[in-house]
Design brief:
heterodimer, A: mainly beta, seven-stranded mixed sheet, four-stranded antiparallel sheet, B: mainly beta, six-stranded mixed sheet, 12 strands, globular
């Protein structure tokens, strides 16, 4: 079944460590996104990519970087994790179209101690 | 910048009854899209319903319907015949219809509890 998968599902790490969150999709969508969810704030966009050669910053990109290794893979990195990056991270995909409906992965819960 | 506000952090309803979740938004644009997403305890974000701003007719998906009031910038979600499986966080979201616009702007969410 076509899907959006994220690994790991849960991760605990320490301040200063480098962390990579991975996203893969079998939907054949060209657009991929990374969001962060914090309690009381909803979801906020970190980065998005229209295709392998196109990467764009979202509203909260500081402290994060991304890599679009292939159409189906989009990774989010925290170069030096800090406690306020503790959050739930979602990957999403979409195709070009009027609604640009976004399909979300199951999320990665990241805790930075 | 666009903002989305959900003023009800929590709501509860008896099973089989009807509940309405509120959402207001702020934008200077005339064309845009609005969405309601459901997030059950599994954490998965699931699209419930969507509305195009240029369509006056309110969207309906089975037991879910919206009341879209463009002038008031209001987009409420009505759930009829509530079921235990409807218990979740519900997020209202906005997306501009401008070419190249990609960002979904989310509200803070409303936690819906269904009482058996």
């Amino acid at each position: 079944d076509a899907d959006v998968t994220q690994t790991p599902r849960n991760r605990i790490t320490k301040t200063g460590k480098r962390i990579m969150l991975e996203c893969s999709q079998t939907k054949g969508h060209d657009r991929m996104y990374w969001y962060r969810q914090d309690p009381g704030l909803g979801l906020r966009l970190i980065y998005y990519s229209f295709d392998v050669k196109d990467i764009n910053k979202g509203e909260i990109s500081d402290g994060y970087s991304v890599s679009r290794q292939a159409q189906a893979k989009f990774s989010l990195s925290l170069e030096s994790a800090i406690p306020n990056q503790t959050a739930l991270y979602f990957c999403a995909t979409s195709v070009r179209g009027p609604y640009n409906e976004q399909f979300f992965g199951p999320g990665t819960r990241l805790t930075v101690l | 910048a666009q903002t989305v506000t959900q003023s009800q952090p929590e709501m509860s309803v008896q099973e089989a009854e009807t509940v309405t979740l509120s959402c207001t938004y702020d934008t200077s644009e005339s064309d845009y899209y609005l969405f309601w997403y459901k997030q059950p305890p599994s954490r998965q974000m699931i699209l419930v319903i969507r509305q195009e701003a240029y369509k006056q007719q309110n969207a309906t998906e089975n037991r879910f319907s919206v009341n879209f009031q463009k002038a008031a910038k209001s987009f409420s979600l009505k759930i009829s015949d509530s079921q235990l499986g409807d218990a979740a966080m519900y997020f209202c979201a906005y997306r501009s219809a401008s070419p190249g616009a990609q960002k979904l702007v989310f509200g803070q969410g409303t936690r819906l509890t269904i009482n058996p």
